[in-house]
Each structure stands twice: as structure tokens, then as C-alpha cells.
Amino acid sequence: MPYDVPPPPLDNPVYLNHRRWMLRALALAEVAGEAGEVPVGAVLVGPNDDVIAEAVNRRERDHDPTAHAEILVLRQAGQSLQNWHLNDCRLYVTLEPCPMCAGAIVNARLGLLVYGADDPKTGAVRSVINVPDGPASNHRLAVQGGILASSCQQQLKNWFRQRRR
User: Which InterPro entries does the entry mention (predicted)?
Assistant: First the structure.
């Protein structure tokens, strides 16, 4: 398993901060869903608890299979910081990253990944495969999963239900 960070108590300031940023990621995901994209939002926060980059899924709009929220936010952060090493940063994303995104996160040497909902189909941190602890991983990734998981899951379920109508 990736280096799991024990969940803080619900009244703990660390949890409240994780919740704050995940709420921002959920708001971004809503924007993606309204634009016809799978509703996934990502926020990258720096060591001073400031937003360095944020993004939403843009695969449909950009006609780009790599335009996942996580990839876009990592690209923005690298440009903003003029450094691809993101070891002092935290990434908040509403859905467990896929294999492509998990690989990029590991390669960015991210300090902490915080995600909402597990992805039982393509999750590559815990659910289906474990990229961070795979033999090709060159970084020990700290992970905190399940922050606002039910809200993240419900947002996805509602979006897919609406798309099927």
C-alpha cells in the first residue's frame, strides 16, 4: 500500500483543512460536469497553504486523452513554480487517480495526495492497482483517501445518472 497517512479526527485542524480544499475540488468538478466532462476537480496547494494550480477534466473539450484534472494541475504547477519537483505540495482530487495520473503524481515527487472517492474501475492508488508502491516507483507517496468520499461519489453518480437519461 502507499504510505497511508492515518485519518485525523473530524475536529482536527488538519482534517478541516483537507475538507476545505476538497470542497474547492468538488466545486471545480461541478464546473467540469456542467461542461460535459466527467466531474473531476483537482487543486494543488503549496507549503504555505496557498493554491498553486487548479484544474478540471478537459478530455472532451481539448480532444486530448491526457487532459485529466490531475495531469493539467501538475503541468500548471510545474510552470508556476518553474520546478517539476512538487515534494512540498499537496494535491486534492475528487476521484482516486487512474494509472496515468498516479504515474505522473509519483514522477512529480508529490508530498501528499488527498483524494475523495475510491475508483473501483480504474483506481491506481488503492482500488485496482497500486502504482505508487509498484516496482517502477521512484518515490514514496503519502496518501490520505476518503476525504468527503460520499460527496465525491454522489457527484459522480448523479452526473452519470443524468447522462444516461
Answer: APOBEC/CMP_deaminase_Zn-bd, CMP_dCMP_dom, Cytidine_deaminase-like, MafB19-deam, tRNA_aden_deaminase
